[in-house]
Amino acid sequence: MYIVQIASECAPVIKAGGLGDVVYGLSRELEIRGNCVEIILPKYDCMRYDHIWGFHEAYRDLQVPWYNAAIHCSVYCGWVHGRVCFFIEPHSGDNFFNRGCYYGCDDDNMRFAFFSKAALEFLQQSNKKPNIIHCHDWQTGLVPVMLHEMYKYHGMEYQRVCYTIHNFKHQGIGGVQTLWATGLNREDYYFQYDKLRDNFNPFALNFMKGGIVYSNAVTTVSPNHAEEARTTDIGCGLGHTLYLHRDKFSGVLNGIDYDFWNPEIDRYIPYNYSYDGFAQKLYNKKALQERLMLRHSDKPLIAYIGRLDHQKGVHLVHHAIYHALKKEAQFVLLGSATEAGINAQFQHEKQFLNSNPDVHLELGFNEELSHLIYAGADMIIVPSNYEPCGLTQMIGLKYGTVPIVRGVGGLVNTVFDRDYDQNVPPENRNGYVFYDTDNYALESAMDRAIALWIQYPQEFQKLAIGGMQYDYSWNDPGDKYLEIYDWIKHKS
Known about the structure:
Layout: E1 2-6, H1 18-32, E2 36-42, E3 53-66, E4 69-80, E5 83-91, H2 108-125, E6 132-136, H3 142-149, E7 160-165, E8 173-174, H4 176-182, H5 187-190, E9 205-206, H6 207-214, E10 217-220, H7 223-231, H8 239-244, E11 249-251, H9 281-291, E12 301-305, H10 314-326, E13 330-335, H11 340-352, E14 359-363, H12 367-376, E15 379-382, H13 392-398, E16 402-406, H14 409-414, E17 432-434, H15 439-455, H16 457-468, H17 475-490
Parallel strand pairs: 1-2, 1-6, 2-5, 6-7, 7-10, 10-11, 12-13, 12-15, 13-14, 15-16, 16-17
Antiparallel strand pairs: 3-4, 4-5, 8-9
């Protein structure tokens, strides 16, 4: 099968979050299975060119219609760790992708409307005929719209679109200028409720809604998050649209790359180990304590790795630090704040706790250190307010670090409570789950985990080793996406 991914990110060359990891990981899995996969991306001035091999100009004169004229573009090609990627560079005074950033500009809606248009023009003008176009998040929501309303009449009538939503919070809002710029034009037609009109703002167009309405299949990044998005406010206003298109909407759990996140071969940790040699994990714990100048003591070590923001349940992260110390455990935090107020709060906590030998707060992001924390910690907390999929808990499981998670989104699909999950046999349970957003719920789950570690160490080790044997690679998601592709390819 010939598959083209259209996205605003692909790790490691362009990565602002989990989207980049998914585009790369899924593309790699699909190629391993014998499919032809190409990725179309914007050519940002700030992307990691050092991760591109054989970078060259592949298409010199791409003319992209825009308003009543056209913008001349060049298309570059290169291999990103084995993946074939095309990078679109517009030559325009708008400097759409020469901003020193990926997102956050006032005209983001127009920047990515142009990218979507340019990607389709590139496919048409270069005579590429993929079976499947797989596009991602609001930035490419107009791709299926323009394909169905315009490009299918110009030689692209057989292409089918799978549209994956990674984050419902950001939906891409545009106005009438989006229609005139892209050539869609017909205001009365597209401002209808069953087309692009935002569900709550009659004067706005919603790119993500367009992707849902016009694509052949819609997915999000875990089965439980799909249900949440359709039936709760997690869908951020798109619940009714998802209900109307429920026959083509599903959740496919993301995978993680075990070539990178794997304690057996991890080059960032001093002692490699597997579930057969679990005792080696203790040496990584000692190495972590030494690196962060923590007390060398036989205490449970609890970690948090991730952003410090409201999505991630930052109030519970803060409480977990002090509750761990109260229970005579150690705590390590690695994270960066997305808001000045949260950053100030944790900077204050870092100074206040600086002399405590049982806690270390590392404010920022450090790839090498994150691997050592996964390998050295006994438990990892993920107390998110909402979590579409979550990679932290899956990585923790692979490293034998028992997850303590809030029961939302993909966390429910990957972590099964040792004591209370009646849907999973006891031997297949792998962590601790709590559901409420208050301190008591978090404390209850932490207390159960700490008590098992202290009172029944062999049972805790059995729980950790069982978690290591779960397969959250791209193997199963790869199967599911190929099933979806095959379904829409043969659907009339």
